[in-house]
Each structure stands twice: as structure tokens, then as C-alpha cells.
Amino acid sequence: MTRARQPERSAAAVTWSSDRGVGSLLAALIDYRAYRFLWLSSVLTQIGQWMLQVATAWLMLQLTDSAFWVGLLGFAGGIPFLFVAAPAGTLSERVDRRTMLLVCQGGALALSVGLAALVLAQRVSPWLLLGATLLNGMLLAANNATRQAVIPSYVPREAVPNAVSLLSAGMNMTRIVGPSLAGPMVATLGVSGTLLLQAGCLALALLNTGRLPRTPQASRAPESFLESLVGGIRYVRRMPVVLALLLLASVPTLLVFPYLQLLPVLARDVLHLGPSGLGLLYAVGGTGALAGSLFVAGFQRIRRRGAAMVTVIVLYGFVVSLFTLVHWLPVVSLCLFAAGFLGASYMALNNALLHLAVDDEVRGRVMGLYMVTWGFMPLGALPLGALGDVIGIDHALLIGALATSALSLFVAWRVPAVFRLT
Q: Which residues have a Cβ under 8 Å from the Cβ of 53 and sit 6 or more positions away?
């Protein structure tokens, strides 16, 4: 097999096969050099983001002693996806995507260093922390939308499901590494030391992004930027399956994923754990998520990916419901592992199916809209955090998890073609 070293050769020079053993699992990483740089950059960036999330959530809990404020912090970090991701996806069709990644990661690096300095100087307040998190969310939204759109630039179409799953596996691996580093670091070095370590991860990510080849220059669209953005929305409305996939990405993100942001409250108030225990919970869930992503990446013979995705979403809601009902740490850990496995499997399947369902000329815009769904997590975290202050965080998460299973079944029932997607 010839190893492709440039995107132009990748599709033609590499014969794709699902019968390669371990090589099948890691095929996109083995065969495509540029994709390896993208993968490493993405993983390092996300490790830093997890460290930031754990450190700032714990700091906010210390400053305010409120689940609502922790939920508000998650809201500030995720709400920019609603307003930035779609325009960023549209912009990625008009400019070099590598440059966009460099700008976003460089900005996040500068922000982390500045926030660490403010924490060291003891000049941080809840409102300042919210503002920094909001700005970081804007940079992350643009970075992630561009990263999603650029994947097919570095691998051929037939390798996209494996590449998406491996990237998902890398993102979920960060759920082990990031919190596992951040929990003990917060306990030993404090929040400022954790933020400086995060800045180091972002610096390494920036170096790997700099080694990516430039993406092919997009042809100038005859319509204006706004017309192009609206055209992407119209495209989704004309394609029921694409719309259904975006809805199925939205429901769990809105109603069940916020448990990740509110886990510090559950750990402290229900399970009575400190920062190290919180890091352990994140690591257990991250281990399950890594296993789920690798399962989807390696098991390329799934013939009915759509039906599998719907089944996984429904089971995901039930598993999260279970760990909110049982407060014994071993059972909670087992449920978090299963939730991580199912959640990562669902995301990898949904993302790959969306890439395969859209046309190349609108990929940036559609993937920008896909990243908008990530903004629904803070929309869910804020009311769930407020509800948690009233009825208990475990009961609030239970309501969201059960609603996820029911609404996902409803969306799939309304668009039955989803079940036939391969």
C-alpha cells in the first residue's frame, strides 16, 4: 500500500480496506500525514479545554458556592457556538482553513496566559471569569467549526467515517487526560498552575497546526457572505435526513450532555468528593468514551449506522438516568463508563453520517450548523443548574436524560429514512 503524503494524492494513492486488523482501526492516522497533524493539534487543544473547564468550574464553585453559577459558567462557554459556529463554517469555505485554526488557537493561548496571571494576582471575580469563558467559547466555536469542515481536505471520502471516529476517539481520550491532569493539579498547584499547564498544551497544538498544508483556495462565491450563510440553512431545510441528523445531534446536547458541566456539583454535594475525586469521575467517563469511539472507528462493517445511532441515543438517556438514581460510587463509576461509551458512539456515528450526507460545496456551512448544536449544551446547563438548586442536581439530570430518549425516538419516527442510513 502506498502511503499518501499530500491531500491531492490521498484519495488516489491509498486503497481503502476494512479488512486490515489494527491497521483498519488506525487507517486514517497511518495513511495520511496531514490528518495526523490535524489529529494531534485537535487532541492537544481539547486537553487544554478540559483542563480549563475543570479548573474554572472548581474556581467558580469556590467563589460562589452555587450550582446556578457553575451552570452559568457552562452557559458562557457554550453559548458562542449558537452565534459564531455557523458564520465561521461559512467563512471556512472562503479562506484558508489552516489560517483560521492558527488564529483561533493563538487567541486561546493568549487568553489562558492572561487568565492565569489574573488568578495569580487574585484579581478574578465571578463576572470576570464569565467574560473570559465567553471569549474562549467564541474562539473554540470558530476553531471546531473549521476543524470539522477541513477533515475531507486531508482524507478521501471513503476514509471519512474512520477519520471522524478517530478524531472523536482523540477528543474523548482528552476526557481522560485533561480532567485526570486538572483534578490533581488544581489540588496541588492551584487553578493558576493548571491554567499555565493548559497554555502549554495550546502552544503544542499551535505548533502542529502550523505543520498542516494549506487547504485548496475556495472559489469566490457569487453571492454575499450573508446570502451564502442563508443558503446553507435553506439547503438543510430541503434535506429532511440532514435536518433530522442535526436534530438528533441537538436533543442529547441540550438535555443530557450538561451533566458533564454539572458533574462538579454532583461530585461535591451528592457524592461528597473533592477535586481529585472529580477528576476520577471525568476520567472514568472519558475511558468509556474512548472505548466507544474506537469501537466505531474499528467496526467499519456497520451496515445500518442510522438505526444503530438511534438505538445508542435512547440507551444513553437511560444509562444517565440510572447513575442519577444510584449514589453508590462503584455503580456511579460503572454508569459513567457506559454513558461515556454510548455518548461517544452516538457522536461518532452522527458526525460521520452527516459528513456523508452533505455535498462538498456546502460542507463548511452545514458543519458550522452542526457545531451550533454544541451551543445547546449551555442552554441546557443553565436551566438544569437552576433546577438543581431547587430539587437537587440528581433529579434535574434525571428529567433531562429521560426526555432525551423520548424526543430522539420521536425525531427518528418522524423521519424514518434515518433508520436506513448506512
A: 77, 178, 261
